[in-house]
Specification:
The complex is a heterodimer of chains A (about 190) and B (about 425). Chain A has about 190 residues and is α/β, with parallel strands linked by helices. Chain A contains 6 helices and 7 strands; from the N terminus they run H-E-H-E-E-E-E-H-E-H-E-H-H. Chain A has a domain of about 130 residues: Rossmann fold. Chain A starts with 7 loop residues before the first helix and ends with a helix. In chain B, the strands form 3 sheets. Chain B has a 7-stranded mixed sheet with strand order 1-9-8-7-4-2-3, sandwiched between helices. A 5-stranded mixed sheet of chain B has the order 10-11-14-13-12. A two-stranded antiparallel ribbon of chain B has the order 5-6. In chain B, strand 2, helix 5 and strand 3 form a beta-alpha-beta unit. Classes of the chains: A alpha/beta (about 190), B alpha/beta (about 425). The interface between A and B is large, with 54 and 65 residues.
Amino acid sequence: MNHDSYDDLYIRGILNSVKTIAMVGVSANTSRPSYFAFKYLLERGYRMVSVNPGLAGQNLLGQPVYATLLDVPEPVDMVDVFRASQHALPIVAQALQMQPRPRVIWMQLGVRNDEAAELAEANGLKVVMNRCPKIEYGRLSSEISWMGVNSRTLSAKRAKPPVRGVQRMSLERVTMPGGVTRAADRVGRRGGE
Amino acid sequence: MTERTPGFATLAVHAGSQPDPTTGARATPIYQTTSFVFDDVDHAASLFALQTFGNIYSRIGNPTNAVLEERVAALEGGTAGLAVASGHAAQVLVMHALMMPGDELVASKKLYGGSINQFNHAFRNFGWNVLWADPDDIGNFERAVSPRTKAIFIESIANPGGIITDIEAVGNVARRAGVPLVVDNTLATPYLCRPIEHGADVVVHSLTKFLGGHGNSIGGLIVDAGTFNWSRGGRYPMLCEPRPEYQGIVLHETFGDFAFAIACRVLGLRDLGPALSPFNAFLILTGIETLPLRMQRHCDNATAVATWLSKHAGVAWVSYPGLPGDRYHGLAKKYVPKGAGAVLTFGLKGGYDAGVKLVSNVRLFSHLANIGDTRSLIIHPASTTHRQLSDAQKVQAGAGPDVVRLSVGIEDPEDVIADLEQALAAD
């Protein structure tokens, strides 16, 4: 798996198939991405599970917060790692102990840990690194186009009716070839770090 | 399903637009509205805090403008775009996101005269200091850069002289200095040159010229290449520090590789206000659909006119990088291989008086101060735009008494040449 560049089909396949997402490192601070990405995905119809030892036992947007992945009492399809890169390996190790195992490990924008990715992939899990599921959902549904962002997709079909209200779109946009989600890595390739 | 990457002409027609979800309208509707309703209070709060995508108010974003933004971003190969009221507004918003009072901007000496004015006067009033570098020697950029430098600014094809800048070489200077390279790509358009592929971090456009292409709408656009690391070294506080306007959100952390376009929108456009009318966006979008056809025709016609002029007895010299033997022909072959654009200058042996006579005698050419129209345009800078300068200043600005500038249109080239022929022959 090339983690510098993901095919749209790969990302769309994940976002279209997972139903329950456990977000590790979720925040109660409303100005943090680890709060509003959670809220955005919740509003798009995903079942969202909060994991953060500092908030364990509290409620976040109506969802109970668990200390660790192993405390989550229900199956999850995807683990979203909202922690710094060096914490990704133990989180993957913990995800592999879950019964049943999640199918996808997703590391947030700015988070990349190749060792953790290898461990997950060796156990048959799909991995995405250095991407935000909120941005990818926005891009592939074209909601993000309202912000002038290049969705790198085309469609000559009428968009499906909004999920709720007037400013929310479903992920069922039929995209013509969009290339790959490689833009986020340009900074790295140019030696930006 | 096989994935294939759509070509430039396909993007020019389709990128960013989709049949309207409600009505099925195929052309992009003109969303002539100031404001957009919220689903509920919580939705409104999320929109204002930049926590979800959507429309609030047309000064900050508009669905017609968004189609234009995505289309130009796609044509340039960038991550995001921002449409604004003019090319000048685009430049203000870019620098507003990069510069603080006392900071420095290194800019090519060979720029559109309006940009030279803007940088020298308006920008200096903001405390943004401009250092000028002659692009014919890249070492000039290297020498001008200091720890206070926040950006380097060039044009891909400079107006009016037909100067091609070595984008890659200047990009390397910017990379070493740790600052973004901003390229004005107005004269080339992404059909002829895509500066991001050569090292640009931000591209700006006057949409008024070839992108709109029909001389009917003023507009500007910023493209974020998604290539610059705004957090390194903490030198760009608008992007890498918590923003008090938005409850402490950090734009680069939140928006990743399109954070610059978002910063220009939510800090620049929101607070400075140069919004583009959606009606103008619609006209410009319609123009862009035929950009590849028009630009090739502009280039072919300009080459024919330049070649004809270079053999005319009354013409002392022709400056057009598309001509073999032109000083910038080598750079043109690298950066604009499909053609060197529509704009060229030439010198009349008869000097100032011959220039005045020529612009008075043309019948098909329009005598006005613009470029990038379907129509052929002509101006004699010494008697018009540069009239107030001394003769020495005129020569320095490439607007000597003998200089005439053409923006060659897409008419039949025989008619364009015939008009110049009769006007040069007339008494």
